[in-house]
Amino acid sequence: MADQVQWHLSGDYFENCSCDVVCPCLVSTAAPLTARPTQGFCNVPLIFHIDGGRYGDIALDGLNVLVILHAPGVMAEGNWSVATYVDERADDKQTEALAAIFSGAAGGPMAAFTPLISKNLGVRKVPITFRINGKTRSAEIPGVLHMSVDPLPTMHPSGEMWANIGHPVSPDRMVMAVGAAGNTFSDHGIRWDNSGKNGLYAPISWSN
Question: Global pTM?
Answer without folding.
Answer: 0.95
